[in-house]
Amino acid sequence: MSVAANRQGAIERAISYCDDGGLEHDLGERVAIRTESQKGAAAVGELQRYLTDAMQPAFEALGFGCTIFDNPYADAGPVLLANRHEADGLTTVLGYGHGDVILGQDEQWTKGKGPWQIARDGDRIYGRGTADNKVQHTINMAALKAVIDERGALGFNAKFIIEMGEENGSRGLREIIEANRDAFAADVLIGSDGPRSAPDRPTLTLGSRGGVTFKFNCELRDGAHHSGNWGGLIADPAITLAHALATITSPTGAIQIKQWLPPERTEAVKEVLDGLTIDAGPEAPEIDLDWGEPGMTPAEKVYSWNSFAVLAMTSGNPQAPVNAIAPSAHAVCQLRYVAGTDVDNVLPALRTHLDNHGFRMIDIEQNSVRFGGFAASATPPDHPWALWARGALERSWNAPPAVIPSMGGSICNDLFTDLLGMPALWIPHSYAGCSQHAPDEHVLVPLCRSALRTMAGIYWDLGTGEVPR
Fold first, then answer.
1. Which of 140, 337, 402, 409 can bridge 306 by disulfide, Cβ–Cβ 3.0-4.6 Å?
2. How many CA atoms within 13 Å lie on the side-chain side of 96?
3. Rounded CA gap, 257 and 262, in Å?
4. CA angle centred on 240, ends 235 and 246, rounded to 5°
5. Do 60 and 167 reside in the same domain of the chain?
């Protein structure tokens, strides 16, 4: 049988996993385990069970040995490392997935019987964790099996991480990797998380934006005062805070603090983003074309630039307002930033900016909330492994993939690129309109089917030995 036929045979085996119901069956069993890492210590038992009952047996059936590392934080989930070593001298590929999910939001679901039982509606499969991230690592595991069944071996050494705390900031993963560097070492990371640029276009993502989250506190006095007697006489903290926030960006969201801007983009980054469009799928919000950095396309704004957002604001009691000027106002804000941004200067530059605009009365508190704790990092688009992956994706699709320098969200990419020193390639199997982190999260069956084809081709090509060294 020719090499091309063997590759096609692996692809057909992977696709049959979807067509014959295997994907839906396995996904249903995995979604049913309530892996809500944001519940802290109360969730650790279920987080552990996902690894011992679902992941470890599945990897062992593929010839992997498994080690489960306890998390150094008692209220955080464990980490599984699966390892299939075929021969010394072969390329070692590290995979990644996370089995934890955000809170179920059970009472808000409108599809099926809630978040913990998958429901099929046409080409959609609903359930918490379907898109983020249970279907994504399920697809990759099935593609590994397809190659093993077709070739009799992978042709490369494979390791695979399943962590149980990504939705809680990956707490403890760094410490586990630092204490076991040799166990996690590999030549390249090929993981799957996040959305494609469009549901029907294969996508290669080369990094992730980081996030700095902080809180503004404008506390002007101890108590509220009657708005009739004191209105016009004492400063309103909500108005003061609103004006301070308005100095940070233009009226259309362009960042005005120059120290917050990233360095000049490389020609390689500009090249991969040239002509790239964002298609979030049906029911996604309409993009405001005039929002953000002027002169940039939507793809350039979210994949190669920084953005500022106000996540929450309060003053007084919005649920039960009274005729009084509130004593304080608060806002939780976030800067999403790409690799190369001087992150250590974000808060000092903000302090200087507020002082220069007359807002010394506003305190800046670095927030310890769970989100936004990942650092930005990226593999260059012209890196040999990035070029190899582009070619492998094109062989499976007969069309060039979308290449994204940095995904809009954040993930623990820096642990692979910076701590372990390897290029990191992400091949996502979802789309932006999947309602992840919201009720009615779902995956698209045609997208899953194409993802199985994609990953079987990737894993087949890794085993040919024609890879970067």
1. 337
2. 24
3. 11
4. 160
5. yes
Task: Look up residue 89 and give its two tokens.
Answer: 């001298």
- The per-residue pLDDT for 366 is 86
Interstrand relation of 328-337 and 124-126 (parallel, antiparallel or unpaired): unpaired
Indicate whether 315 and 384 sit together in one domain.
no
Q: Is the pLDDT confidence value at 216 over 90?
A: yes
Considering only 235-244, 270-279, 348-357, which range has the smallest mean pLDDT?
270-279
Does 271 fall in a domain? Answer: no
Residues 116-166: tens digit of each pLDDT: 999 999 999 999 999 999 999 999 999 999 999 999 999 999 999 999 999
User: What is the extent of the structural domain holding 144?
Assistant: 3-208+376-462
Q: How many Å apart are CA 429 and CA 99, to the nearest integer?
A: 15
Residue 183 three-state SS: helix
Q: How many domains, the chain?
A: 2
The CATH number covering residue 352 comes to 3.30.70.360
Read off the tokens for 25: 């069956």
User: Whole-angstrom Cα distance, residue 326 to residue 345?
Assistant: 32
185 and 201 assigned to the same domain: yes
Q: Are 331 and 238 in contact (CB under 8 A)?
A: no
Show the DSSP H helices in 398-444 as ranges: 413-414
Rg (CA), the chain: 24
